[in-house]
Amino acid sequence: MLDFSKIDIKRRLVIGFLIVPTIMVILNIVGISEVNSIDRELYQINDVTSVKQRYAINFRGSVHDRAISIRDVILNSDPLEIDKSISDIRTLEQDYKNAAIKLDDIFEKNIVNEKERSLLENIKKIEQKALPIINKTMEYKKNNQLALAQDTLMNNARPVFIAWLASINAFIDYQESVNNIDAISARNTASGFQNLMIILTAISLLVAIVSGLIVTKSIVDPLNRVAHDIDKSSNKVASVADHIRSSSNSVATGSTKQAASIEEISSAIEQMNHIVRQNAEFSERTSSLAQKSRESAQEGERVVMDMVNAIEAINESNYKIMGQVDDSNRQMSEIAKVIEQIGEKTTIINDIVFQTKLLSFNASVEAARAGIHGKGFSVVAEEIGKLAQMSGVAAKEISDMLTNSSAKVESIVSETQSRVSELIESGKEKVEAGSIIARQCSDVLQEIVVKVNSVTDMGVEMRNSLKEQSEGFSLITKNISEMDKVTQENSVLATENVTTIHSLNAQTIEMRKAYSNLSALVGNEIKISA
User: Does residue 345 share a domain with residue 224?
Assistant: First the structure.
């Protein structure tokens, strides 16, 4: 485990500030991965499965319209109408082939599974069976073999067309089920992504708070201990100073007999007073720099708060992106409803086709009974016309719905891209703002280091002053030693002064050690002289 007590304050602050950017990088990586997963699923829906379904729908349209055209060939007696119906059949056959070629290209790229291959093979088998029957029916009609043509149409062509349409519908239904599965997967991924981002954000906030408390505690506790040691040593020095003052007074009283030595002692005391004043000035300057350091630290705190605000703004941008994803999901649901409506209209068309075939059959029976002048045939033909008109209306409605669906999809894609671009650009600006604030933090911390270095230099000057003070005390000791003939009382007092001075020196060393600990905490080291 990381031991903060062995790391200086600069490295502690760097560790504290690196935790939040690291968490941000992790969140961005997870977000990008989830968004890519959703993009892959949407690509499968829009660019693969829907395309195959579109070609299959073209199959169904071609087969359905060919069935109607073949019926018209058999029932019409006007050569122009027959030629037009045959031309329509050939055009529909070509449309079917074009769709088949494009669908085969997809299958050759292996963007399919075994189920799809099986469904397509079934469609091709029925197609190979249906084409000869179609040609045979039209050949009977061309040779004026009307009865054989009608019999082939009802007994051979009709079941084949039904099976053909059923196989195509099975393929379309399978593609729709695949689309539904992929859509559900995309929605589940988006929902899971939202929950994951909330959990990771909560964890990030917890880690940032805990790490901040740990770093703060690792800085504050040593400073409190150093301050306590300095305060304790200062009290001891004050006590020793009082003792020295008392002893000096006694020595001064006993030294009245030493007139020659008084002048030298006075000079030495004056020198000591000058040194004390220098120490006072140094102390005042130290206090001023400490005040400025505190202000710089407060400025650093404000800058850190600005960085937190910038990060919260980035989180809000992420929430907006998730909101846009939810909107896209709702709009995709609308598209699903439109597709469901298309399915309902297709059912109507199938029912109409079925009724048309029954009426066609009834018309054939009536024509066979009454001959050319059968009146029932005209009634049936009129009903067939009405049903054909209904088929046209339903087909137009389907076309309109498909147009609306396409426009809506394009609108969704365009709007989503625009919003995501705007949010990404906004997030980029906020990240840049966070970077600027981080550089400001660095500048403030550098200013703190410079000021702390100034305090260190003043400590060196104070040590030199203490050395001069010690030399002054040595001069006093020398003068006192020349007073050998002073009374026994003065000798005893002089001995006490020497002992007291040694105690003061010891307390001074303790204070310098405490100061060294404080300096080491901010990344600098002061060697303690003996």
Answer: no
